[in-house]
């Protein structure tokens, strides 16, 4: 990865821990961080844990990238950092954000959990920011690990010490569980017991997400925010989907990660090919330029619940959904809302993330099931004008979310899986 990015890289047990380390190093407590509202809630809690105030950015409706031109000038002036998301591998406009951050004298941090093979302006995603974080749970399939890449190699020692202070000791039981997990998962899938396994987790109270978003628990969250920065106080939120996010890796993890990382290039080629096939479908947003090796391809469908149900009949579970947007989910008590939320609402409601490695199968199912493309996106890029009385409430009344279905659940009755988006 050092050769790919041209940067010094530091291994971390998870992308989310790497992001926490970066935020603590580059952002003073109390600072304000511009980020995407269509994002993993885990990342939202990482920002809060670092003692920072999330500020939700306006997005493009076709790929949920940050819409730089729709960010009001007044919003830029109060920021301490910008955090990109590169959702599903679709790059945020890093060159423009880099230039803007340079003018303001603030850091650009890149969350590249989904974008290990993506490029923008001929450069790898992750090579624009002061720091970038990557997940090895996604394209490699290692289900553990990540790395923090930095523009200034002299900072490696400082960041390594910060990492080591946060690590928890290796546990033999955790290593054994990790080593056996692929075989257990394969057995459950082979015996078609996935639904039964999830039902058992619900009965035991072990399912951490009853819906797409985890429970906010605002009372507890308010108490945690009051003592931030403090990772331990946010552990119950940040550990969701990945309890070993701070665990010092043992040999089993490192060996499997290295083996899978050595197979990355063929995997990226396959993802790029599947992305190209899906991008040519009638459910894809218009595309120009070279195709990225996306981790998931966001098809835009009219009725996502119907699409998910159709896929579930063929044992294809839809994951990596981020609905509702974070400012709707968390409210102004914990985040500044987007000045132009309409595009984020539209994308969060209609996006159906598809594994590019299953492109042909998914397109066949959607076609046979009569799944229609989403209607055109509304012109929702204008910031809210307080003097006009236009607000998010008005947008809902005009139909952006007024007909939205409840959070989709699969035919088996369990929530759409979220996945370790932050890694």
Report on this model:
This protein has about 425 residues and is an alpha/beta fold. It folds into three domains: about 1-165, Aspartate Aminotransferase, domain 2, CATH 3.40.640.10; about 170-205; about 265-395, Aspartate Aminotransferase, domain 1 (Alpha-Beta Complex). Helices cover about 40% and strands about 10% of the residues. The protein is built from 17 helices and eleven strands. The strands form three sheets. Strands 1-9-8-5-4-2-3 form a seven-stranded mixed β-sheet, sandwiched between helices. A two-stranded antiparallel sheet has the order 6-7. Strand 2, helix 3 (about 40-50) and strand 3 (about 55) form a beta-alpha-beta unit. Helix 2 runs parallel beside helix 3 (about 40-50). The longest helix has 19 residues, at about 170-190. The radius of gyration is 20 Å and the shape is globular. It starts with a helix and ends in a 26-residue tail after the last helix. Mean pLDDT is about 90; it is low at about 385-415.
